[in-house]
Write a structure and sequence with these properties.
Radius of gyration: 15 Å
Order of helices and strands: HHH
Strand content: under 5%
Distance between the termini: 46 Å
């Protein structure tokens, strides 16, 4: 149950932050953002915001799966799944940002 609460909090953070970046097209809060190197800041904000919202939803899904299939080692499994998911989604988000750079 603790893992679900932690995953829900983390997922909520990603969802809210991603929504703010996507909806208000606020590219300046993105790490590593430099106006000199970005040719479409609104597109970059849309892409990064949607990627963060997808990460938040998948974090909620991992936490929900922990509730359904709870066992003795489910907390470790949830942590490992979250770390792998975070790394993969970071790679996808970073690869997608290249189309908005000069």
């Amino acid at each position: 149950m603790t893992a679900f609460v932690v995953m829900a909090l983390i997922g909520s953070f990603f969802l809210i932050f991603g929504f703010v970046v996507w909806r208000f097209k606020n590219a300046k809060v993105i790490a590593g953002y430099d106006e000199k190197w970005v040719k479409d800041p609104d597109g970059l904000a849309r892409w990064v915001g949607k990627c963060m919202m997808a990460r938040g939803m998948s974090t909620w899904l991992i936490g929900g799966l922990e509730l359904l299939f709870s066992s003795k080692n489910s907390d470790n499994t949830v942590f490992i799944a979250f770390m792998i998911l975070s790394m993969l989604s970071s790679v996808v988000a970073l690869a997608g940002t290249q189309r908005y750079c000069k």
